[in-house]
């Protein structure tokens, strides 16, 4: 059986990412927890957050230092309303549990917005499919891997 971690690992390989996945000593379901475990600024954590945009999944990869401005996101993607998705909706869209969602490795591509605040960090850390796994990357790699759109998403 293929796991969420296997799908993320395969996606990273497909995109030529060579730095690998880091297993943390404890689960890191929040940006603050991940930053503490990795010894990096909270703003360098790339939170993969799934929202429901008029019933369609929307992945927003936000800097751990930001709250997402859902009105700005809705206006950018041209929908009436963007709201936080339920854990069931997240799992259906990504095959991953809340607290470990990766920007890659989903059953099907998701429209993705990548927070421009992440460009201010040479290295950012993104979830790798499980609450205790992360991978290092860059803002540019996130844009390429997700085929995402750059947007300042902070409220």
Major beta-sheet overview = 8 strands, mixed
Number of helices: 5
Gross geometry: globular
Rg is 14 Å
Residue share in β-strands: 25-35%
Taking the alpha carbons of the first and last residues, their distance comes to: 40 Å
CATH architecture classification: Alpha-Beta Complex
Structural class: alpha/beta
Domain module tally: 1
Low-confidence stretches are: none
Q: Care to describe what's here?
A:
The mean pLDDT is 94. Strands 1, 2, 3, 4, 5, 6, 7 and 8 form an 8-stranded mixed sheet that branches. The termini are far apart. The protein has one domain: YbaK protein (Alpha-Beta Complex). Strand 6 (124-127) and strand 7 form a beta hairpin. It is an alpha/beta fold and 155 residues long. It contains 5 helices and 8 strands.
Helix-strand layout with pairing:
Layout: H1 4-14, E1 22-23, H2 31-38, E2 45-53, E3 56-63, H3 70-77, E4 82-84, H4 87-94, E5 111-115, E6 124-127, E7 133-137, H5 139-146, E8 149-151
Parallel strand pairs: 2-6, 3-5, 5-8
Antiparallel strand pairs: 1-7, 2-3, 2-4, 6-7
